[in-house]
Specification:
about 260 residues, six-stranded mixed beta sheet
Length: about 260
């Protein structure tokens, strides 16, 4: 479970988050949307304990991480996987070395056993193990995102997965592949998924519940049906540019 309770966060005197409160039960998928600079990615950094709020409480797996010591945060982070927009792969390492990085650096497993796990993980994320010796720049953007997801899964066996703009910049087929993988992780491994995106058409395929952040505040927190019926001007204005493009999406009716 992840819960924010009246969280306020500032950068250089400017308030980024204002009394943010929400709760995400274990095993649930939630998409966080909002305009650029609204505070979406800040929420992910707060969940990881990379930054601390000025006030409020943040609970991850039932533990209040605000003010927690670094050793405690490290234990909490072991249960969290993070996938960045650009994949954040190590350019000088092969695909296999990237996916198996944690096992290579932090365990005494035999190399042959690590390689076997890496090949299994590549299969799980929908990639051929023939790419195991390739470098990241030899892969498409979509393949890099799936390699990054595989690395996160093999590093921590996470109960929580955080995704920062996972489909941005991808072509339609790669986008579909990444969305399918995110959904499969939630369904098969019962991973709690939090996806930050501004791609609404993708968002409705990745979750049934949504949070909209506007100017650092929670403008909406609810289901697709609630989203379609929202009258809050902040929500209406945010959705307005996208209504036509998602009018035919089966999960939601904006008419």
């Amino acid at each position: 479970m992840i819960a924010f309770k009246n969280v306020n966060y500032f950068i250089e005197g400017r308030q980024i988050l204002k009394d943010v409160t929400f709760e995400i039960p274990s095993g649930e998928s939630r998409v966080i949307m909002g305009h650029s600079g609204s505070g979406k990615s800040t929420i992910l950094r707060l969940i990881l304990g990379l930054i601390c709020p000025r006030s409020g409480e943040i609970y991850v797996q039932g533990k209040n991480i605000c003010g927690a010591r670094e050793r405690q945060l490290q234990e909490i982070r072991k249960g969290i996987g993070m996938v960045f927009q650009d994949g954040a792969l190590f350019d000088s390492l092969t695909v296999g070395e990237n996916v198996g990085y944690y096992l290579l650096e932090h365990t005494k497993m035999k190399f042959s056993d690590i390689e076997e796990k890496v090949r299994e993980m590549l299969g799980f994320v929908g990639l051929s193990d023939e790419i195991i010796d390739r470098l990241p720049d030899q892969l498409s953007g979509g393949m890099q995102r799936r390699v990054a997801i595989g690395r996160a899964l093999l590093s921590t066996d996470p109960k929580i997965m955080l995704y920062d703009e996972p489909t941005t910049g991808l072509d339609p087929q790669a986008t579909s592949n990444v969305i399918d993988l995110i959904n499969r992780l939630a369904q098969v491994k019962h991973v709690t998924s939090i996806v930050v995106t501004h791609q609404i058409a993708d968002a409705v395929e990745m979750a049934d519940k949504f949070i909209i952040i506007d100017d650092g505040q929670v403008a909406f927190d609810g289901t697709l049906k609630g989203l379609s019926e929202a009258t809050d001007r902040r929500v209406v204005d945010f959705l307005a540019p996208f209504r036509e493009s998602i009018a035919n999406i089966r999960k939601i009716d904006f008419i």
